[in-house]
Amino acid sequence: MKVAKDYLNTPRTIKSDSNLADVLKKIIDEKKSRLLITDNGKINGLVTEKDLGFFLLTDDSERKLDEIPLSEIAVKIISVDEKTRLDECAGIMLKNGIGSLVVTSNNEVVGILTKTDLVRYFSKTHSGEKIVGEYMSPYYAWKYSDTPLYEVVLKMINEKISRVIIRNHDETPVGIVTFRDLFKLALTLGEQDDVLDNTDPVISVIFPRKGFISNSGFGGSTKIDEIMNADIISVDYDDDLTKTGKLLLDKNINGVGVLSGHGNIIGILSKTDIVKALAFLK
């Protein structure tokens, strides 16, 4: 069994006295989904794209992003020694409901280990051992294609979920909306000149974000089928779990639909489900 130091990555950092505009710019510029927070050179916290996204969609203050301190969305880090087995790392992630661990050596931070790294390890080393159906989540959230955008966003926020399957009224799945899709859409709207005349388009994202959860604004006038992704990537119930892991990595996505023998979506398989498989390996 490999250990944490075999799959760790060099962390990207941001100073603790930064604001949310700084965080957003760094996440976009460096194409990273999480940043470690430093205070006087010491790592003392973490901020993720998802934490930032939920904040953007739920905060109802009138503050601009450069007025909001990073500390409002920072979370504590959980660390493991670099010699910790990867199955143990998987168990720690699941127990704490997190997607990454800080890796240390002699109490000094040497890297970060993410769910994606664990999926990469599992996919390389456990071919033919498990099938998708053993670890998929049989529940999946869904909405009809003519549902207003704000209802879908509120469902994601209230249920703390990352994706919603979209159906037509024949009950046929026709698309998917992910939290990352909404995050990117918020950024796109924030850069439009007619939203706000602002010299820094990153900061202007604060204004359209309110419209996402308003039935009288953008979120009410837009139907979910206008922004959904019509390409639902799916796998079969009996597929090898490592094959699906490689698909997630190749497509840079976090989850896929699971099809029954009749071609119906019967669940979702996410990176977290593969982490479960690793944690419970005998």
Topology (elements, then pairings):
Elements: H1 4-7, E1 13-15, H2 20-30, E2 34-39, E3 42-48, H3 49-58, E4 79-81, H4 86-96, E5 100-105, E6 108-114, H5 115-125, H6 132-135, E7 142-144, H7 149-159, E8 163-167, E9 173-178, H8 179-190, H9 206-211, H10 218-221, E10 234-236, H11 241-251, E11 255-259, E12 265-270, H12 271-279
Parallel strand pairs: 1-2, 4-5, 7-8, 10-11
Antiparallel strand pairs: 2-3, 5-6, 8-9, 11-12
Description of the structure:
With 282 residues, the chain is α/β, with parallel strands linked by helices. The protein has two domains: 4-125, CBS-domain (Roll), CATH 3.10.580; 133-279, CBS-domain (Roll). 37% of the residues lie in helices and 21% in strands. It is built from twelve helices and twelve strands. The protein has helices at 4-7, 20-30, 49-58, 86-96, 115-125, 132-135, 149-159, 179-190, 206-211, 218-221, 241-251, 271-279, and strands at residues 13-15, 34-39, 42-48, 79-81, 100-105, 108-114, 142-144, 163-167, 173-178, 234-236, 255-259, 265-270. Strands 1-2-3 form a three-stranded mixed β-sheet. The chain has a three-stranded mixed β-sheet with strand order 4-5-6. Helix 4 (86-96) packs across helix 12, helix 5 (115-125) packs across helix 11 (241-251) and helix 5 crosses helix 12. This is CBS domain pair protein. Pfam families: CBS (PF00571). Keywords: CBS domain.
Low-confidence stretches: 191-208
Number of strands: 12
SSE run:
HEHEEHEHEEHHEHEEHHHEHEEH
Mean pLDDT over the full residue set: 87
What is the C-alpha radius of gyration, as a whole number of Å? 20 Å
- Percent helix, as a range, is 25-40%
CATH topology of the largest domain: CBS-domain
Distance between the termini: 11 Å
The CATH architecture classification of the largest domain is Roll
The CATH first-level class of the largest domain comes to: Alpha Beta
Keywords: CBS domain
Domain CBS: 7-62, 70-129, 136-195, 228-282
Organism: Candidatus Nitrosopumilus salarius BD31
Protein name: CBS domain pair protein
